[in-house]
Amino acid sequence: MAQINPSILSADFARLAEEAKAVEGADWLHVDVMDNHFVPNLTLGVPIVESLARATDTPLDCHLMIEDPDRWAPQYVEAGAGSVTFHVEAAAAPVRLAREIRAKGARASMALKPATPIEPYEDLLPELDMLLIMTVEPGFGGQAFLDIMLPKIRRTRELISKHGLELWLQVDGGVAESTIERCAEAGADVFVAGSAVYGAADPAAAVASLRARAETATASAAWACGH
């Protein structure tokens, strides 16, 4: 089943609790954490995650676009995140970090920037609960979807199937009604959507529409046949 994770990077930061409630039909709430070092932008940190966790029943999916995630990622689990994503480009010991995140009770996820290939990390996949393929360069919301990432999504799905893993495959960046079906057909099953949800007149209806499009595309996708 397709999962839709609205990104609060596109929400009104002055009304985060209300914005979280506006998408209560979503599967997860995607929280982008940026440190102005790994990416050229600065956003939410641990205190905001703690506040959000108290304000919503929707589980939090924290995407850490930060340096030294080995040090900081466990704090986001403690703050209330149900899933924590670190960038492999920034992690010193990704297997150890994934195991620590899991040991603290959250789902462990690893993200790859557009230029980072999946193949060198094939042996790490069993250590993860989710893999995130960035479909824009991380750091800013509202960027255009990179079609050149579709073959990488397909290759990643093939590796997941090859090893028989129950690994979620997430895409983040430029996901909208015009792109979500291509992502689902290629193999993604978790979709981060920012402006496509929070820029809509009815965010909850936008979530439902995106999910329906993704599930229709998945139903006829080669990778999902017999899945």
UniProtKB/TrEMBL annotation:
Any GO CC annotation of this UniProt entry: cytoplasm
Catalyzed reactions: D-ribulose 5-phosphate = D-xylulose 5-phosphate
Binding site for a divalent metal cation: 30, 32, 63, 172
EC number(s) on file: 5.1.3.1
Pathway(s) this gene product operates in, as recorded in its UniProt entry: Carbohydrate degradation
Cofactor(s) essential for the protein: Mn(2+); Fe(2+); a divalent metal cation; Zn(2+)
Single biological process term from Gene Ontology: pentose-phosphate shunt
Class of enzymatic activity (EC top level): isomerase
Active site: 32 (proton acceptor), 172 (proton donor)
Cofactor: binding comment: Binds 1 divalent metal cation per subunit.
Amino acids binding substrate: 7, 63, 139-142, 172-174, 194-195
Keywords of the record: Carbohydrate metabolism, Cobalt, Isomerase, Manganese, Metal-binding, Zinc
Gene3D superfamilies: Aldolase class I
One of the record's GO molecular function terms: D-ribulose-phosphate 3-epimerase activity
One Pfam family matching this protein: Ribul_P_3_epim
Function: Catalyzes the reversible epimerization of D-ribulose 5-phosphate to D-xylulose 5-phosphate.
Family that this chain belongs to: Belongs to the ribulose-phosphate 3-epimerase family.
Record's protein name: Ribulose-phosphate 3-epimerase
UniProt organism field: Streptomyces cinereoruber
